[in-house]
Amino acid sequence: MTRIAIVDYGMGNFHSVARALQAAAPDHDIRIAREAGEIRAADRVVFPGQGAMPDCMRTLDTSGLREAVLQAAREKPLLGVCVGEQMLFEASDEGDTPGLGLFAGRVRRFQGPAFDHATGDGARLKVPHMGWNAVTQTRAHPLWEGIAQDTPFYFVHSYYAEPADPALTAGTSLHGLPFCCAIADGNIFAVQFHPEKSAAPGLRMYRNFTRWQP
Q: Is the pTM of this model over 0.90?
């Protein structure tokens, strides 16, 4: 039986992720991991996060799980979700916070004319970006299997990752500007949206993750 660890460092929607994974893959051993040994013992790791990036990084360090997450990212399939994706990069504009540095790039805040000025109909794009939005798959990947191009997923965020290497991008969405919302490299796949809040397509992504052999 495959063991999947959901990293619980105190800043994530861990129970919702666990319920979604259990629904997507009922024959797997799904565990919320609060100890480094549980992460090291797992076959696959989900790294969620929500809230402010400075709080997430600080809580990850105080939890004692940072090195276990880094080791998992080197050795086994890892799925980053929301701020869990952002934390994989070098730094964030949110509090000028250093990330884990697994990927070159920076996390940026939504800003620009579309957010600062009303359009002709009096509307102005809001931050945070919240709700359903279409995701364009920019390259093939096993985690996209069975998910149609431009399928909507559920987002809640004010910041987005900007990879230094465009080849890292596996999916984009549009909120005032096109932005990277999925990355893929080797044994790592990570998304800005919440699969656990994205109905059938989100469950399909989690099911794909449990079967993925990078």
A: yes
Question: What's the rounded Cα separation, in Å, for the pair 17 and 36?
Answer: 19
* Residue 15 bears catalytic tag: no
Residue 64 and residue 88 in contact, taking contact as beta carbons nearer than 8 Å: no
| Contact by Cβ (8 Å): 163, 180 | yes
Active-site hit among 38, 85, 94, 196? 196
Nearest to 179 by CA among 95, 119, 108, 115: 108
pLDDT in tens, 133-146: 999 999 999 999 99
Task: From 178, 190, 83, select the one nearest 133 (Cα to Cα).
Answer: 178
Known catalytic residue at 175? no
Task: Name the token pair of 181.
Answer: 């919302």
Alpha-carbon gap, residue 106 to 47, rounded angstroms: 18
Residue 194 annotated to the active site: yes
pLDDT digits (tens, 9 = 90+) for 46-91: 999 999 999 999 999 999 999 999 999 999 999 999 999 999 999 9
Going by their DSSP bridges, the two strands 178-185 and 169-174 should be labelled as antiparallel
Of 28, 56, 82, 157, the active-site residue reads 82
107 vs 121: CA distance, rounded Å: 30
